[in-house]
Design goal:
Length: 75
Amino acid sequence: MDYKDYIESNADVMLGKPVIKGSRITVALVLKKLSEGASSEDLIAAYPHLTHNDISAVLAYAADVAATETLIAAA
């Protein structure tokens, strides 16, 4: 799966934050809900526009961002 097929960033939508294509559902919202214990089914029930592929794309996007993140060591 290529998350770029499901996630976009557009300055005119949610101030350019990454969102599920065709929606205003941010990657950050999906990750927050999952981290709070929501299941994929919970998210799809709350946001009917979401699909399982959308949620998988969010996780793939987050993994890619985390893998390429550069940390600055504390002084």
